[in-house]
Design goal:
The chain has helices at residues 14-38, 45-73, 87-110, 125-159, 164-178, 188-212, 215-229, 240-243, 257-260, 270-287, and strands at 114-116, 234-236, 248-252. It is mainly α. It has one domain. It has a three-stranded mixed β-sheet. Helix 8 links the parallel strand 2 (234-236) and strand 3. The protein is globular, with a radius of gyration of 20 Å. The chain starts with 13 loop residues before the first helix and ends in a 10-residue tail after the last helix.
Length: 297
Amino acid sequence: MTTTSTKTNNPPSPGKIVLFTLVSITMFILIAIACSLLTSWIQNNALKIAVREVVLRAPLTILFMHFFARRVIKAYDPAALYGKLTLAGLFKWIAISTILPVSIWLFYYVFHFIAPLTGDNSMSLADKVQLFIKWSSVSIAAGLTEEVVFRGHLFLLMSARYSKFKAMFITSLIFGLLHIYMLTSFNVLDALIVVGGGIITGMMFSFIYAYTKVIWYVVLVHVIWDIFFIGKITTIATSATDAKQALLAFKFTTQNVLLTGRGFGIEAGIPCLLTFLLLIFVLYKRSFGSLKPVAIS
């Protein structure tokens, strides 16, 4: 694998890195709020979410971040983060993207840690289609925006001054901290689980980018993972009422926190995290040379 570097002869100061990071995250949040306001008039919920997330939020976040990097940060070439897709690479990462979540679900199901949660699901085909559109749109937008911001711009920004491994860890830590907002109720243990899980997940995505140099493959892994685990497509439901809102609902048959992931759910469970760590190890072995910073002469 070819070793590349984003280091520059005049890297941004730590103060500027903090400032640019805060501005990037603020832009990320404000764009989401603005898109929500712009689509509040749409009556159909699935259509509203699709327009808000896929038509507006994802492209606007990518464009604003690109403009900010080129005109303000000026520490790296923002076009460099996208890389070049290949047909072989696309098939490879589609396969990996699918194997990851399917293997987790199968592990829990085969070892009877989850069981189908059935209910009087009266959803029509149209309701199921709308449900799929809704949560697929959320997953697509989350994968695109989070990867372009965290594994893309923030990673390249920090790589301009620090080693790539440090840049991976810092951006993954921020990624984990921001996911605290997903907790339904806050306590210290749940927050630690979310942050720890977020760091490992972020590191996995970071290593995929370090290995491929193509942000779209990372986006693909993130999107397909979220389609399986976000919302109500496949879900761990807590009641029959909750099951009625899902296409495929399960319930835990165990209360072991190492398997349930407490407030954050199955994604913070040990099986998920071990799977991520295994992929990190494989990618680390394959791309170790690319993690060593090389100054540009």
